[in-house]
Design goal:
With 90 residues, this protein is mostly helical. It is 92% helix and 0% strand. It contains 1 helix and no strands. The protein is rod-shaped and about 125 Å long. The protein starts with 6 loop residues before the first helix and ends with a helix. 0% of the residues are buried.
Length: 90
């Protein structure tokens, strides 16, 4: 049996195909929006993590400064003790 394809029938068939592609486009647009939203949330979390590391780095800098002062004080006390020991032996 032979089927005649008229312009109207072709238009109807392609119209259905276009509707299905419109659905695919909408689905992809929704998926893209969801992925972008999730990446924005991840970016926010990384920003907060960067802030935490910055605060931690500042604490380490303060601790290092304190340790250097302590070592300098101990070195000065040790030097004074050595000078005192030498002075008493002369």
């Amino acid at each position: 049996m032979r089927v005649n394809w008229t312009d109207d029938r072709l238009d109807e068939r392609f119209g259905g195909i276009n509707e299905r592609f419109d659905g695919v486009d909408t689905g992809l647009r929704d998926l893209r929006n969801e992925v972008n939203t999730r990446f924005e949330r991840i970016d926010d979390r990384f920003d907060r993590l960067d802030d935490r590391f910055d605060r931690l780095e500042a604490r380490f800098d303060a601790m290092q400064h304190t340790l250097i002062q302590l070592a300098g004080g101990m070195l000065a006390a040790f030097g004074a003790a050595i000078i005192g020991l030498i002075a008493t032996q002369l």
